[in-house]
Design brief:
This protein is an alpha+beta fold. The protein has a domain of 55 residues: Arc Repressor Mutant, subunit A (Orthogonal Bundle). The chain has four helices and five strands, in the order ββαβααββα. 11% of the residues are buried.
């Protein structure tokens, strides 16, 4: 996975995560930061949705590491409703 190193931290490119999601070998794991960047939600909003059952639950990997399964996130993205930008019909009175 492509990474950008900054002075304070390593940042994963969202485009690289998307490529991984689209690949046929999408059985990898994503960190909390990768999920946040990919779905454009804050950490708190992700956990709110997990509690409501509207977002895939993370898995525990070791004592202090929480990860998401790539295929679960991919399925969630695919199940999002499609937005229609069809013109509204004019209401005549």
């Amino acid at each position: 996975m492509s990474q950008i190193k900054t002075k304070s931290k390593t940042v994963i490119k969202p485009s690289q995560v998307l490529e991984q999601l689209r690949s046929k070998k999408s059985q990898g794991l994503l960190s909390s930061q990768q999920v946040q960047e990919l779905v454009n939600l804050s950490r708190i909003e992700i956990y709110r949705r997990v509690r409501k059952g509207t977002f895939p639950a993370p898995k525990q990997q070791g004592l202090r590491n929480i990860v998401w399964v790539v295929s679960d996130i991919n399925r969630w993205i695919e199940d999002l409703p499609t937005v229609s930008y069809a013109p509204k019909k004019a209401v005549t009175k």
